[in-house]
Amino acid sequence: MTISQKIAQFAAYQRTVRELNALTGRQLNDLGITREDIKNVARTAR
User: Given 1, 8, 18, 35, which is the most exposed site by the fewest CB atoms within 10 A?
Assistant: First the structure.
């Protein structure tokens, strides 16, 4: 994996974390995740 791919991957991770953190607890519950799951979900998102 190139450095530019790593940077793009990290940017996608940060964007996913930011977007999930913007959701309400009810919205997260509807998705089946908790606030504690956000970083793990973002790590596996593609």
Answer: 1
